[in-house]
Amino acid sequence: SGGLWVVATPIGNLGDFAPRAAETLRSVDLVLAEDTRHSRPLLLQFGIETPMQALHDHNEATQAAKLVERMLAGASMALISDAGTPLISDPGFRLVQAARAAGVPVRPVPGPSALVAALSVAGIASDRFCFEGFLPSKAGARREAIARLAAEPRTLVFYESAHRVVESLADLRDGLGGARKMVLARELTKRFETVLDGTIGEVRERVMADADQQRGEFVLVVEGVQDLAAAQLAEGRRLYEKLAGHLP
Ligand code: SAM
């Protein structure tokens, strides 16, 4: 009978593709993929011949209702994204919302997500955390977003791309203080997997010193504020020193 499966796929290592994920993609009528060209090799590798259709940020709003109608009529579908878990900084929210509203069963086939993979190896408090997805791409908005998080006691988790990791590390250092602990998890489960830990200042310096560390995909895990009063005092001092430099 009709329904929607939300299926996680590997974040780099094909060995992480779960047997139930493959079985689900094989058994449904249609695989909805963020990018069919990207996902075709994965399906081929596992001998999955299910037809695919693209569902991405640009067509999801118009496609969701039609797809839900087909599921109500009995079609079974599986949603996948380019990597990891759909809806986690990936398309699918509108479709899942519409399916649920229409009473279509929505079931998960859980698996990899860079967010959880990074947190699981970071050694930074993981009992409570704020997942912030990608920081804004514009510098002003990014700094504002970081400033709003400066007093957050929970661990902060960000996704970042190679284009902006250097800028984001500088803005995190300026907005949260260079002494805060962080982990930079790069290319998890892939050939060049690297997990750097230290203070924000230290991690930034190691990334700046080695262009190879600026390549690939990143998760930034940053410790929440430990002592808010001390952090505010340090921030006051930092601002004072910055201002003092401009005084006669
Ligand atoms: N849905 C995916 C998930 O569950 O992890 C995330 C999709 S988001 C568009 C892509 C971002 O996830 C990358 O820019 C990076 O921040 C993070 N990411 C994905 N794969 C990664 C990996 N192997 N190592 C580190 N970060 C990764």
From TrEMBL:
The answer to keyword S-adenosyl-L-methionine applying to this record is yes
Q: Which reaction does it catalyse?
A: cytidine(1402) in 16S rRNA + S-adenosyl-L-methionine = 2'-O-methylcytidine(1402) in 16S rRNA + S-adenosyl-L-homocysteine + H(+)
Q: Its domain of life? A: Bacteria
Give the matching SUPFAM superfamilies: Tetrapyrrole methylase
PROSITE patterns membership: RSMI
Which Enzyme Commission number(s) are listed?
A: 2.1.1.198
Q: Which UniProt keywords apply?
A: Cytoplasm, Methyltransferase, rRNA processing, S-adenosyl-L-methionine, Transferase
One GO MF term, please? Answer: methyltransferase activity
Q: Which residues form a coiled coil?
A: none
Q: Where is the Tetrapyrrole methylase domain?
A: 4-203
Would I find Methyltransferase among this entry's keywords? yes
Compartments, as annotated in UniProt: Cytoplasm
**Which Pfam families does the annotation name?**
RsmI_C (PF23016), TP_methylase (PF00590)
Which class of enzymes does this protein belong to? Answer: transferase
Single GO biological process annotation from the record: methylation
Q: Which InterPro entries match?
A: 4pyrrol_Mease, 4pyrrol_Methylase_sf, 4pyrrole_Mease_sub1, 4pyrrole_Mease_sub2, rRNA_ssu_MeTfrase_I, RsmI_HTH, SAM_MeTrfase_RsmI_CS
What is the purpose of this protein? Catalyzes the 2'-O-methylation of the ribose of cytidine 1402 (C1402) in 16S rRNA.
Note the PANTHER family from the entry: RIBOSOMAL RNA SMALL SUBUNIT METHYLTRANSFERASE I (PTHR46111:SF1)
Query: What family does this belong to?
Result: Belongs to the methyltransferase superfamily. RsmI family.
The protein here is known as: Ribosomal RNA small subunit methyltransferase I
